[in-house]
Amino acid sequence: MYDVSILGGFGLLLLLMAVYGYRISARTAEDFMLAGRGIGIAVMFFFVLFSISSAWTFYGYPGFLYRHGPGFSYFIWGCLAGLVGMYMFLGPRIWAVSKLNRFLSPVETVAARYESKALRFVLSMIILSAIVPYMADQALGVGLGFEALTGKAEFRIVGMLYLSMLCVLIVLLGGMRLAAWVNVVLGAVYTVTFLGSLVWVAAAAFPGGIADAAASMDPAQLALPGPEGKFTPAVTSVVFLVGLLALCWPHVVISAMTAQSKRIFVWMPGLALVAGGIFFYTVPFVWGVFLAPALSGLPDAKVLRLTVPEEAGRIAAEASDAGAALSGEEIERAAQKSVTSSCDKIVQRAVGAYMPSWAGVFVVLGVIGAALSTAAVQLMTSGILVSRDIIHGCFMPGAGDKTLLLITKGAIIAIVTASLLIAWWYPVALAEYLANIATPGFAQWGPAFVGGFVWKRGNRYGALAGSCAGFAILAGCFIFGLLPGMAVIPALAVNLILYVAVSMATPSPSKEVLRKFFDEVDVFLSKTA
Predict the structure, then answer these.
(1) Which tens digit of pLDDT belongs to each residue from 235-284?
(2) Integer CA distances (angstroms), 16 to 13, 23, 182, 203, 363, in order
(3) What is the architecture, at CATH level 2, of domain 2-438?
(4) What are the strands, taking DSSP E only, across 409-523?
(5) What angle in degrees, to the nearest 10, is found between the helix axes of 328-344 and 346-354?
């Protein structure tokens, strides 16, 4: 009952914020979709940091490090490098050109650069196909939190529905402005619970806290390729590259379009690197690499480490006792799923073992904050892609603000429903949703996006050929189970090669486009304080 009251009160607080945001917001597409282009540096920092720090940061990242060692941290450093590059070089340009031409979405901006309605449709569908699984990642993360808190598997779906309903209400009522504001509140809850639980659990389990936990570690846990041999040099290189592709994340790109002024892009790279990389992402790293393994290694361990061979043996023995005939492949698959779920819940399991029972619900609030801060921005971006780029851009060019807002809100409900179905049907490791599905998908609009702002010779034919071919390769590898975790390499390579080769072999963009996207932007940025 206590847990229900806390979770209900938290949801009510967010709902009141959503109602307030609705009352003060302007009823225009620009205000709903881009917060009136008025986000300042303080809100922008929390907006961006916590829109990329999701349930996988709270659960998936520590869980993956706990299982495989520190190799996955290369993904984080790749992400930070990509974000710094985005805000230093590309961010000011997309902000300027969208402000000058009243563009309302990143895809609209890129499609205008290439003068292609077909490309607008293709890029929107590619990005949506990656956003929906990323939304599923957030729902599944909160579901795992509810499951770990209650100890009952059926509460996973309750957590997934709780997050989805909150997300829909926040976005429908307040749009992008409220999503940004809520991130400040959610980020504070997230940070306090994540850091506080780390310190509390370490102090409860070890006399010297985190220092003792680190000293008790098996050196093999800290070395590559990790306990299961996953992170070979080739894999760590790919992981870093996939992280670097964060500069293509659509929710990061659209945040640049909401900026109040050019000064945002002076401060954001340093804040992202120092506050985000050196401080914020150190917390899940310590959780996954030092504290969780040390807890599992204690003589009276309250948090037991599950391994695939041990779990496979248990599943096989239980099946034999029950008279069920399972194949070796089925046993292996069930064991992998069980170990993945156990590792993704390692933070919540440790909290339940070493902190008072009342504290567990506050940690779940942190997970909800982490997931909701990302899901709201992702959902808002998805709705914009459907209404502004697919419906308005390709089928109903004369639609007004009222129609666009209605379509956006309808798309939001449909996308949440689709993400819930995926989370229920395909519950893989949280880190794998991001690194193996969402980010490689986002990357397939990368050559067209980046090339459109840095290379004048890039044209619609190259952008279409590269994007379609890259996505086709990525989808084929996923469907047929080819190159797991590595498919982004051939997909992105073919995408980039075709973009350059086809652009060079076909006519140059028009002088009007080059003037609008290069000359006018250069003049505007040079004159803007």
Answers:
(1) 898 889 888 888 888 888 988 999 999 999 988 888 777 776 666 788 88
(2) 5, 11, 11, 37, 22
(3) Up-down Bundle (1.20)
(4) none
(5) 60
